[in-house]
Amino acid sequence: MLSKDEKNLSQVIDKISKMEEPRRSVVRRVHDIIVTAAPTLKPRIWYGMPAYAKSASTPALVTLRNDERLNLAITEKPAFRPAGGVDGALMPAAWYFETVDEHTEKRIAEIVRSVVD
Q: How far apart are CA 94 and CA 111, in angstroms?
């Protein structure tokens, strides 16, 4: 019998597998980056999207959207920090992408780790 976490992971993998290429491969790569960067986060479906939470019963902290553009977003649940620098008091919460290169992969990992810490 599968645990709740295993069922949730299966649902996320299934959701990703139903996406059309090349997005399916990109989202799968981002999923792998997220679970590697923050292995304590639990994949689950959140409002129909792949998402990642501290447990199967807590709100999602990070979501992956496959709309007109691919989007990595921080939900309203984690504490936000002002960006500083040229962005001053703005608090980044979403990033759009079409592909994932080495620099983007590192940035996604940083973003995900900042939500967990």
A: 10
